Amino acid sequence: MANETKRRARSARNLYPLIAKRLDSIPTLGAILKPVERAAANQDQATTQVADLLQVDPALTAKVLKVIHSPFYGRQHITFAASHAAAMLGSSALRCLARGVDIYPERTSGEVGLDREAFWIHSLSVALAAQSVARMVSFDLPEEAYLGGLLHDLGKVVLDLYSPPQHREQLLDGISLKAERDALGTDHAQVGALLAEQWHLPRNLRDVIQFHHEPAARTRSFPAPHRELIAIVALADRICCLAGYGLHRDPVSRAEPLVLPDGTRLEEPQVDALVADIECGLLSTLSRFGFDVSGASPLEVLQRETAKTADDDWRGPREPEVHARIATAAALVHASRQLESVDEIIEQSLDGIHSGMGFDRLLFLQLDPEDGELRGRYLRDETRLPVDPGSVGVALNPDGLMGAALRQGVAQRVDNWATDGDLLGLLGVVEVAVAPVIVNRQPLGVLCADYFFQNREITDSDVALLGILGCNLGLAVENSVLSRQAFRLKALASKDELTGVHNRRSLMRRLQKEVDRAKRYGSPLSTVMVDIDHFKPFNDNYGHQVGDTVLAEVAQLIVAESRDIDVIGRYGGEEFLIALPETHIDQGIVYAERLRASVDRYGKQARKYYPDIEPITISAGVTVLAKGDDDMEQLIKRCDHALYAAKDRGRNRVCVD
Q1: Sheet with 442-450, edge to edge strand ranges
Q2: CA 341 to chain centre
Q3: N or C: which end of the chain has fewer CB within 10 A?
Q4: In whole angstroms, what separates CA 98 from the centre of its chain?
Q5: Helix, strand, coil proportions of the chain in percent (round to 5)?
Q6: What global pTM score does this model have?
Q7: Mean pLDDT on 131-157
Q8: Is the Cβ–Cβ distance between 242 and 254 less than 8 Å?
Q9: pLDDT band for position 578 (50/70/90)?
Q10: Do strands 618-624 and 654-656 pair parallel, antiparallel, or not at all (unpaired)?
Q11: What HEC string does 400-422 produce?
């Protein structure tokens, strides 16, 4: 991210805190970034090919490793080749990452500083040399030596960008850490290590960056692999400087012998072979970038290509059209309101916001009102890395900007480390847009969006549009909740609370419809009236709670024996009425007998729990809608008459009227 705050720190005093909290990337050369972006933009370009280009640039490699090792993705303890890390991210994330790395800002007239092309050549030459030395001494992971060499001088870029102008030339021309400390209170090795720590790079790489200029005595207490890696990179640095691929005007002393980490002295033919391999590797790399490497040194090739790129407007605008984003928001609102499930609404909304707005990552954090914790529920990002959103959580600081967003119901740009550092540190960014999602005037959670890969600034329009979408998402969820509540209230109004079947009012309404339909089409309609035998003694002996259980279980037996089109309702205390559409009287009798037998079996099984009364049984009366002037009242009256006949004849039987 290249803005005025980050471009220049005008005093040494604010250099260290700026790096500690605000620096989230370093720039690179336009000549290098142009072919990388071109390859990344090609949908057919293999991920491994893009990764091969990424891993030869310090800025791009550092960005890839920062992503992989960030707390959000939880891979802080993995170290491997940058190409493997890039392949894990996937092509979509790599495209965003390539678009997000900044180009070195142009120098003002007369401004001095780091020789940027020489820095790039030096970093890559040390990486190639370190890999070769690692193989010579059978170091377990030569790719780590390569990474250490590529990143060892990251702090130089930071000093070039942020140190006061009056110190810049002398700091970048020599390797005296003391001179840097005297001028700034820190040095490029400490700054680079701090940067690596902020980006959660592995400890062995941080040690290489901080101690590659230090004598071996300083690292004596380190683990053996760390000491060996530091020694390999330090030796590679010396070899490259002796070969003319250094950064410093003062030549490196040739009097001091070149010694491998195992104590073996390098002979001149071995050094010559290493230098030849380095130059071959540099030219091969530049050729892969599409540069013409004939008849020039690697540095001359890169300087020539940099001059050409400076006059080439190859990087188009990255800001999407505002009207297109508003159209996406409008379409999203319409789509979400058609859904009923809250989960579906949030899921589809995140898909739309992520693709339409162009954010790299979109996270929905749900607020737990009891402990004030914001916990991840849903995530959309560009990588193929598995992340469990539920493992992501931050405590809500009421005094922070995110707390203000929830309290005021207004979207915010969160960039204050003092109040919202937990969220920014977790996401690994210096700013994030947050939008509250309010449902029924209560905060449900927040949408968090960032440009983690593209490294773009979050604009006012980003925040405003995310706020609109968050508001609309809350309305869609609220609409779904109210619809479900209305449905539940409607269901409660038509259902008997105890048994779950229709209550009497709903039963009468449904029965009238069936009577009207049967009379209109001349179809048969049978009805069955059911009463639980000896129910009052059951309540008296065992209490109403047990009686309610029996009522509910008998109701479920009726439901189990009935069809979906049958209408079942609680007619009175322990009486049920069942309407059987398209059912003749003989079929109605069979249904009633099947139901009586089912309850009889249930009663016999329940007798061992309720031995003090008669077994649970039912009596049933059956009738059918007659032709002519028959109506619902007459139908119920005949059904009730048949039921009393069953009671009079000894119960646990079916009678017909």
Answers
A1: 393-395, 373-380, 361-368, 442-450, 432-439, 412-414
A2: 20
A3: C
A4: 21
A5: 55, 10, 35
A6: 0.64
A7: 90
A8: yes
A9: very high
A10: parallel
A11: CHHHHHHHHCCCEEECCHHHHHH
- At 54, which helix (H) or strand (E)? helix 47-54
Distance CA 642, CA 620 (A): 7
**pLDDT higher than 60, residue 405:** yes
The first and second tokens of residue 594, run together, are 């099947």
Answer yes or no: are the C-beta atoms of 357 and 450 closer than 8 Å: no
Q: Which of 490, 494, 636, 514 is nearest to 575 (CA)?
A: 636
Provide the sign of the torsion angle of the four alpha carbons 424, 428, 430, 435, taken in this order: negative
Type of residue numbered 409? G
Banded pLDDT at 511 (limits 50, 70, 90): very high
Question: Would you state the structure tokens that stand for residue 467, as one six-digit string?
Answer: 């706020």
> Burial letters for 497-516: b for 16+ Cβ neighbours within 10 Å, e otherwise?
eebebbbeebbbebbeebbe
* DSSP count for the chain of H helices, then E strands: 27, 11
**CA-angle at 439, arms to 414 and 327, nearest 5°:** 70
Distance from CA of residue 248 to its chain's centroid? Answer: 45
pLDDT at 337 over 70: no
Q: CB neighbours of 528 closer than 8 A, spacing ≥ 6?
A: 577, 578, 580, 588, 591, 592, 595, 620, 621, 622, 639
How is residue 24 written in tokens?
Answer: 């989230």
CA–CA separation, 527 vs 578, rounded Å?
6
534 DSSP 8-state letter: T
Tokens of 40: 């990344």
Name the amino acid, one letter, at 543: G
Residues near 477 by Cβ (< 8 Å), separated by ≥ 6? 342, 345, 346, 437, 439, 444
pLDDT in tens, 234-245: 999 989 988 888
For the four alpha carbons of 325, 330, 333 and 336, in that order, the dihedral sign comes to negative
pLDDT tens per residue across span 49-76: 667 777 888 888 888 888 888 778 765 5
Maximum pairwise Cα distance, the chain? 123
Q: Which residues pair with 364 in a beta bridge?
A: 378, 447
Q: What is the DSSP letter of 625?
A: P
Q: Which residues are catalytic?
A: 574
Q: Look-up: residue for tokens 């000894």?
A: 650
Residue 79, token pair as written in the block? 């170290």
